[in-house]
Amino acid sequence: MTGDKLVYDGWLKVYKRDVNGRTYDILKNYDAVSAFITNEFDDVLMVKQFRAAIMDETLEIPAGCLDIAGESPEDCLIREIKEETNLKIDKINLKKIISYKPTLGFSTSVLHLYHAKIKKSDLISNKVNDEDVNEVLWVDKNTFIEYIKNGKISDGKTIISYLYLRCMKAGL
Questions:
Q1: Distance between CA atoms of 113 and 61, rounded to whole angstroms?
Q2: Where is the Nudix hydrolase domain (predicted)?
Q3: Considering the chain, what percentage of its residues have pLDDT values greater than 90?
Q4: How far is it, in rounded angstroms, from Cα 44 to Cα 162?
Q5: Closest by alpha carbon to 8, among 28, 24, 31?
Q6: Domains in the chain: how many in total?
Q7: Calpha distance 71→102 (Å, rounded)
Q8: Per the domain annotation, does 5 fall within a domain?
Q9: Predicted local confidence at residue 172, as pLDDT
Q10: Which residues pair with 35 in a beta bridge?
Q11: How many other C-beta atoms lie within 10 A of the C-beta of residue 130?
């Protein structure tokens, strides 16, 4: 293996890496955090936002990148939840689900998933002052499952969080 060669230096960084005569493209991007937030009725808090990569609007759980040096995943998540939903979540309400590498075939990033339970009334408005988020909404459990089946929810972190929590609840 030889040293990585920087070939693109933007918000994301792309490197060429030679390993045993083969060249690989490596994406070095920020680690990230997300929260699967539910209420007393088991509704799921979702954000609706436009994603330029797929040129479509998505339904996802709140998330963000660890792009402030020295910031812990929990502090980053609290900041991102506030930015995307106007909710103030205390660190004590965040329960770690799992950390995983969502794109390990070409990226170094780690995604830290958390769960938080709040009251439905804690969400005062579905309008936020965030350039990425168009709307914040509660999705009931049955609709959430239907949205996964019909592809309206296709975001990996959202689906993995749901399935992980469902398995834990079932004792698996």
A1: 10
A2: 28-161
A3: 79
A4: 9
A5: 28
A6: 1
A7: 21
A8: no
A9: 77
A10: 114
A11: 17
70 DSSP 8-state letter: T
Q: Per-residue pLDDT tens for 97-147? A: 999 999 989 999 999 999 999 988 888 776 776 778 889 999 999 999 999
In a domain, 107, yes or no: yes
Residues 150, 5: Cα–Cα separation, whole Å: 42
Please tell me the distance from the alpha carbon of residue 95 to that of residue 35, in angstroms, as a whole number: 9
CATH number, domain at 148?
Answer: 3.90.79.10
Instruction: Enumerate residues 6+ apart whose C-beta is below 8 A from 123.
Output: 45, 85, 86, 87, 136, 138
In-domain check, residue 8: no
- State which residues form the domain around 68: 31-169
What is the value of pTM for the model shown? 0.90
Q: Would residue 4 count as lying in a domain?
A: no
- On the CB side of 24, how many CA atoms lie within 13 Å of its CA? 16
* DSSP string computed for 85-106: H-----GGG-EEEEEE-TTTTT
